[in-house]
Design goal:
single chain, 93 residues, mainly alpha, 2 domains, 0% strand, extended
Length: 93
């Protein structure tokens, strides 16, 4: 399957995977461990209250609606991405 969004090396890897040239080494025990870690990652066990401007809240709600997700989920995702380093403040670059 040709994917125009992939570079040459990525395309070769995709073709190899699709051809069955790779075999999983994931054991049932490791799979259970990874599933448990994933479940803990998405457990939301703390509630916070923040004050933001109506303008910012309206913008967040609008973006969340376009993404088809609740605005609280979008806010949580933004915070998680920032803390994990995958979302950076452009002012600090």
């Amino acid at each position: 399957m040709k994917n125009n969004n992939l570079d040459h090396e990525e395309q070769k890897l995709l073709e190899a995977v699709e051809a069955g040239e790779f075999e999983s080494t994931l054991t049932p025990a490791r799979k259970a461990e990874l599933e448990a870690m994933a479940a803990k990652t998405f457990t939301k066990d703390k509630r916070i209250n923040i004050r933001i401007t109506n303008r910012d809240l309206d913008a967040i709600k609008s973006k969340a609606q376009k993404e088809g997700i609740p605005y609280q989920t979008l806010i949580s995702s933004i915070i998680h991405k920032y803390i994990s380093g995958s979302l950076q403040d452009v002012a600090t670059k």
